[in-house]
Structure formats: structure tokens, C-alpha cells
Design a protein that fits this description.
2 copies of one chain form a homodimer. Chain A is α+β, with helices and mostly antiparallel strands. The first copy, chain A, has 14 helices and 18 strands. Chains A and B meet through strand 10, helix 6, helix 7, helix 9 and helix 10 of A and strand 10, helix 6, helix 7, helix 9 and helix 10 of B. Strand 11 of chain A pairs antiparallel with strand 11 of chain B.
């Protein structure tokens, strides 16, 4: 039996054990954006470092950054074979609204074919599957290529320290390509490889019209209401055709030629299926583009949160002093996030009524990126997927953002293979996030084939 | 020395004692809208009942309603003298945002000429001053008129049970006129009497575009964002001239003739002073009206609160499923609150995009009202004010709502005298609510003169 087959057999025997160990990792509430979870971030990093040691990795280290640490480990015992830098993140999003979860967000409850937990899909489940593939190959006696791990803890807050970390550790991280497990496929029966990602620019806006909250009867009708100011600003950010109105917003957007429109169309979900995944009743977006194009190839600007005035139970007749919004843009190549910020400032400055104090705070950003669909690594990933899933992958453009892809391209000069098995309806970032277990187990096998293939090639 | 003068002397000697006792009442956090304060509501009612007994009132009773109780008490020992029904409310607004208070909202800290507490001005301070005037007259040996007290605990939640209570107790509450202490004056040097009040219709709107929160990268740009839907709806509620766009909103609004525009103008604050009281930098309102007219004689529609999506610390790339707003209209005679609800539903229905689930919930309402400036009770109040403040009062239109005025007019057929001493910059409903102490003490004396005058007349 080949090493590959021995590893596959081992992985199948280990399914229950792998699931039990996965639940341990899911139980750590590693929410990077909430400071009270600092100790959990450390626990998650230590848990992963112990696991890397258990897999026989050398030079395992929880490396400090200006924020949450990066877990590093390496196995460089295959001279001549390629070296992959495996990227993942062990941090997760907050879990609110908590009352909409049907089971403990950190319980990892299995219901039907799914395991439910924050991070199950995004993306503890993805890098854990890769680790279990490596474990199977190591158990089978031969890890076929060289590996380096860079598992960060700040992806969900925009990876503020990662570029600096990569810059400071260029030699340590040198590799032939990046294996980024923070990825997904279209459906269990239509596997795909993402070759394009949107970028992100995320902002917080505050508008203030008075020093303090006022009585809506005593002052209402005579001074500005900040909720109205903010509503007008948000309403004006799109025209009637769903196009973003920031000055110059589309100037640098790379268009789609007929070949790419065709590739996008091949991987597109039927509209009805898309609506069902979204749990929505109506499609809405930029005029002149299909849903798949709106997601994969067109930028957005939208409010992720809004708050101001009285939001409690009952009625309070307040004319608030302040209102706030979180606003973010999903960007496509070749939009420049810094230019987007300037455009947003310009828009706000052009449309802000007199007498309003306002502040725009930038949280995080990264450009979009597009990868070479024809590299040998991409081809090995395609072959591995075809072996496990029984059909060649679709090449897809993804609406989400993985800024590290652009960073590694810029700083290390290497391309990335996005190989992960999340599904579009996993509910990531929302309540009842889940991972489809057949994909989890198939993912482990796909990683085994991918690594084996590269070792042979 | 006359009874009146003895009472005035007593009231002046009692200032420190009155302030200390006032602080006891302020210390009870009687927030009617928050269910966890239910026991405090009971405590406040019991405290007032004990005080009424101490003043020698008969038939003192904490009377149950479908919600918080009404405190009743009476003194009917002056046959031939008029009977006043004294109205007040012992409930207060919530105190959020708590971190903007400079001292404990229930501490009653005195800083300079002010006492700071939730309810200091709205309106424990007003009815407490009236009680202390009665105490002084009783101590002086003669309460000159008949009194009945109706002190409710649900004014800040729209008095949902008060109309039923008045209806059920029509005989008990029968009176010649109502003395409503929930009132204010323009400034310490420009005392006034409110003869017109705005009504209120208060709503909560929820819009929902998806079953659950979505990832803004994966779905952003392809389905509706409920914050955008809500922003568009709020933005569209006013035209460029600041006029409300609900269909038929202004149809029944009673216009101002030249005499009333003149009365409004006489009592108007200079714009600069108004801005300073509001803590705002710019005036804004319906085109074609002065600030005083916008407040006193024109209706409004505005958002009192808004919330949806991620509102925590940091960045969360969520495309929310729901967004909410509290929206209220201040109404003037002869607008009908039920018609306003129909107009709002019509507007929402006309402007709601396809595929949005929405709900409009009505919290509370009451019509506006206008009182007779020339009644003997109004004239007695004017004389009392002139005696204490040294100048005749301005007759003013108030922007706030006191729905009980309309209720009592409809059910008991009696007119109301609004006599209270709150100031426009007391910060009611907001953080650091305060009462101006010279007005508090002058208020006690004005009530002594008013009651004495009516007893003599």
C-alpha cells in the first residue's frame, strides 16, 4: 500500500477521534476583537503549538506580535520537494446575537450532518482538517513535502500586525507557494477553487449634532437629528441603480471580459438557490450584473451596523445627540483601499449638513487579489479535488476578503492556493455557524492527495 | 400676618429641610419603562402616599391600575371654594447613557445653583414644590381651596392606563379645573404659562431582509441590506424643505393667525440662545417657520433611536438580517394620532422594497391641546407668577406632550392650568438632568400665591 493509501486509511479510522479533538479546539472562545477574550486567544495558540509538536514539527513557537500571537512550526526534511507555507487563523468572530443560537456557540454540537460552533467553518475546521491530513501522512511514515505553518490570531480584526510580522520574518517564511486553508467550495457536489478575492476597507462613522441628548418635544423640529443625518448619508451612498456614489469609486475597477464572465457564469448558483442560502426573498444589487458577478467581480459599500438614540424596551422621547455606523467596502482589483477612504471622506464632506461634527475612523483594510489559474500548485489542487469529489473543480471568484493573500504576494512574492471546504450556507459570522461533516472528512482526504501529489511531482 | 405671608415665611425657613426631603424622593429610581424597576415604582408611590397623609389629606390611597398605580388624596374642607385636581407623575425616564452622567442619577448632587438627578426637573421637582406649598399653607393654618391629587406612574411610557382610570373614577376626580405641575417656564427672568401642547404618536419599526445575519463578503452586493432599507425610509420621511412627506400629514394642522404668531414671537428665544440651550451649532426645521413656531405650532416626525447589525467594539463584517428604529411624531391641534399611524403605514407600504418583512408597533399616543388663555384660573396663575417673578408671564406654546391635558378635557370636561418651573435647559430625558434651585424655591412661593389667590377670589 502506498503512503498515500495508508494515510487515507488512517484518516478514515480516525474520524471519531478527529471530531472529538476538533471539539476541543472549538471550545476555546478565541474572539480576537473582544479584549475580555485575551486569555482565550493565548489558550488557542498554545493548543495549536502543542498539536504542531505532536505532528513532529520543528521550531514550534508562539510568536508575539503587537497583538495576538502567530503560531509557527516547520518540517523541512524533504530537500528538493517544494515548501508550502500553510496559512490559517485561529481567531473567530463574536457570537452576538447570542439568543439566536440553537446550541452553545462553543459546544460543537453535532446535529445531522453538521457540527455547530463559532469557528466550525471560519476557519478552525479548515486548518484543523489540514493538520489531520498531515498527521495521517506522518503516521503513514512520510510527509511528502516541506511545510511551514503561519497561524495567526487577528484575521477577524483585519490582521493589523500580520504584514509587519511577515516583513520581519521574510527568511523564516520563505516558501514556494502558500496553502491558504481559509477557503470554501460552492457545494458538496460542485467543488471549486477560488482564484479571486475581494478586498476590504472598514470604517466607523460618528455624527454629532448636539452636546447632549435632548427632549424630542422641547427641541424636536428645531435642530438636526443625527439619525436623520446618518440615514441621509447612507441613503445617498447608492443611486437608484444600486451603484455606489462615492466620487471615483469605480474608476479603477477591473472589468470582466467574455471569458471571465463565462467562468463566473459556470460557477454561478441559480438565483433561487442563492436566495435560499441567504434566507432572503429578493435579490438586489448593481444594475447590469448577474448575482455571481455582483459577488465575485463588483465592489460594494455597505453599513454593517448602525446605532443611536434610545434602543431599549419601550418608548423614550429623546432627540439624540449622536449616531454611529460601521461602514465597509468590499473591493475588487485594482481598487486601492486608501483611495476608497479618501473617496468616502470626500463624499461625507460634500454631503454633511452644516453644524454637524463628524469623525471617520478606519478599522482595517486590504486590497483584492487574483491568482494564476494555471500554476502547477493550482493544478495539483485541482487534481486532488477531482480525485476526492469525483469531478474537476470550478474556478470561482469569491466575494469575501483574505487580505493575507495580497500581503504574501507583495512581501514574499509568492502565489497562494486557496484550498478549504467551507460551504456558502455555513452561516459564518452569524448565529448557528456550522461545518458540513462530509466536507470536513473529504477535506482531510483532499489535503492528503494534494500533499502527496506535490511530493511525487 | 396673613395666612399667605405666614406660609411664605415658613417655606423660606424650610428650604434646607425641603431640599433634603426632595433628595429622598429623587433617590428612588422609579423608571416606569424598565420592568426591573417595578419595586421602585411601588416604593415611590408609597413614599408619596405617606407624604399626602402627613399633609393632612383624606382618603389617601395607592390605587391600582393595569400598570403602575395612581396615588390619590383629597382635602375637601372649603365649601364654596374651587376644587383643583392636582396632576403630576412620579415616574422618570431611563438614565442611559449612564457614562455621560457627572454624578449619580439618583444622588441629587447639588452643584452651584442646580440639583442634578433623573426626575429633578421632569417632574418630581415640580409636584414636590406644590406639596411643599400646601405644607406651608397647612402649617400656617389654612389651606384656602379644595384639592384632589392624581399622581400617576406611567407618564413616561405614554400613560397607557390613565384614560381608563379617569373614566372609572369620574366622580372621585370631579373638579373645577386641573392644576398640572408638569410644566416649565422659558427662563428664570421670563416666566411663562404654557397654553398649547403638542401631542405624540410613538412607533417602533422593524425591517427584516433575511432569516439570519450574513457574511458581508459572501453575500454583500447581492441581497438587500436592512440598514440601507431603513436609512432610505427615514431619509424619505422629509423633503428638502424639512417638511414631513407622510401622505396627508399636514391636512388637519391648525394654522397660526397673525395674533398667535405675534404671541409666539413674544415668547421666542433668540436663535443664539436656543442653540446654546440645545448645545447645537445649527438650526434646522420646516421651511417658512421660525424656531418658536417649529417647536410650538408645527408637527414633527423623527427617529428617536436606531439599531441594527454589529454595534460593538472593533470590526465585524456582517450583513445584518434586521434593523430597527423608534420613530415618533409630535402633533399639533387638530391632528388625529390614529390618522398619523395610518399615514405612516401608508408611507412605509408605498416605499418598502419588495422582499422586506416589516412590522410597525405603536407604543403610545395622545393628541395636542390648546387652553383658554382668559379663564379665572389662568388669570390667578398669571398674577401669582407676576408677584413672585416681578413680571407678567408670557403665554407660550410648548413643544412637548402632556396627553393627560386632552384626556381630562375630554373625560371630565375641565380645563388645565399648566404651572411648573422647569427650564428648557434642564436636560430632561438626557444625562445630567437638573433643576434650577431658585426656580424650585420660587415655584413653592408661586403655588402659595396661586392657591391663596383662588381662596380669596
Amino acid at each position: 500500500m502506498s503512503t498515500r493509501d495508508t494515510a487515507l486509511t488512517f484518516a478514515r479510522k480516525q474520524r471519531d477521534a478527529n471530531l472529538a479533538q476538533f471539539r476541543e479546539l472549538l471550545a476555546i472562545p478565541s474572539i480576537s476583537t473582544l479584549s475580555e477574550h485575551q486569555p482565550d486567544m493565548k489558550r488557542a495558540a498554545d493548543w495549536i503549538a502543542a498539536e504542531l509538536k505532536h505532528l513532529g514539527m520543528d521550531a514550534v513557537e508562539v510568536m508575539p506580535t503587537g497583538g495576538h500571537p502567530v503560531v509557527y512550526g516547520e518540517s523541512l526534511n524533504k530537500p528538493g520537494a517544494p515548501t508550502a507555507l500553510v496559512y490559517g487563523h485561529y481567531d473567530v468572530q463574536p457570537v452576538d446575537p447570542l439568543d439566536e443560537w440553537e446550541s452553545d456557540p462553543f459546544g460543537g454540537e453535532v446535529r445531522g450532518d453538521y457540527i455547530y460552533a463559532r469557528g466550525a467553518s471560519d476557519m478552525k475546521g479548515q486548518f484543523f482538517a489540514q493538520l489531520k491530513a498531515v498527521e495521517a501522512l506522518v503516521q503513514a511514515g512520510d510527509l511528502p513535502i516541506n511545510l511551514k505553518y503561519m497561524l495567526e490570531g487577528e484575521e477577524e480584526i483585519g490582521s493589523p500586525h500580520l504584514a509587519g510580522f511577515i516583513e520581519a520574518n521574510k527568511e523564516k517564511l520563505a516558501c514556494d507557494f502558500v496553502l491558504n486553508c481559509d477557503a470554501g467550495v460552492h457545494s458538496p457536489t460542485a467543488p471549486g477553487i477560488t482564484y479571486s478575492l475581494r478586498g476590504l476597507a472598514y470604517f466607523e462613522l460618528k455624527v454629532q449634532t448636539a452636546k447632549k441628548d435632548l427632549h424630542s418635544g422641547r427641541f424636536g423640529g428645531s435642530v438636526l437629528n443625527p439619525i436623520h443625518v446618518l440615514s441621509n448619508l447612507i441613503a445617498g451612498m447608492h443611486d437608484a441603480e444600486g451603484r455606489v456614489t462615492l466620487p471615483g469609486f469605480y474608476d479603477k475597477v477591473r472589468g470582466l471580459d467574455d471569458e471571465e464572465r463565462d467562468i463566473v457564469a459556470q460557477a454561478a448558483f441559480p438565483d433561487g438557490e442563492w436566495l435560499e442560502m441567504a434566507g432572503a426573498k429578493a435579490l438586489f444589487g448593481e444594475a447590469g450584473y448577474t448575482t455571481a458577478e455582483r459577488i465575485g467581480a463588483r465592489p460594494t459599500l455597505e453599513a454593517n451596523g448602525i446605532w443611536g438614540g434610545f434602543t431599549g424596551e419601550g418608548a423614550k422621547t429623546v432627540l439624540p445627540a449622536k449616531a454611529h455606523a460601521k461602514i465597509s467596502a468590499r473591493l475588487v482589483a485594482d481598487q486601492d483601499p486608501q483611495e476608497i477612504e479618501q473617496q468616502l471622506r470626500q463624499y461625507l464632506s460634500d454631503h454633511m449638513p452644516a453644524g454637524v461634527d463628524w469623525e471617520l475612523h478606519e478599522h482595517s483594510w486590504g486590497p483584492g487579489s487574483t491568482m494564476n489559474r494555471k500554476s502547477p500548485y493550482m493544478q495539483a489542487a485541482a487534481t486532488a479535488i477531482e480525485t476526492v469529489f469525483g469531478k474537476p473543480p470550478l474556478f470561482t471568484r469569491e466575494g469575501g476578503s483574505v487580505p493575507v493573500v495580497g500581503m504574501l504576494q507583495t512581501i514574499l512574492g509568492v502565489d497562494t492556493i486557496m484550498l478549504g471546504f467551507a460551504l456558502p450556507d455555513d452561516g459564518i459570522h452569524g448565529p448557528n455557524e456550522r461545518q458540513y461533516l462530509p466536507n470536513f472528512f473529504n477535506g482531510i482526504e483532499t489535503y492528503i492527495h494534494f500533499l502527496s501529489q506535490l511530493g511525487e511531482g
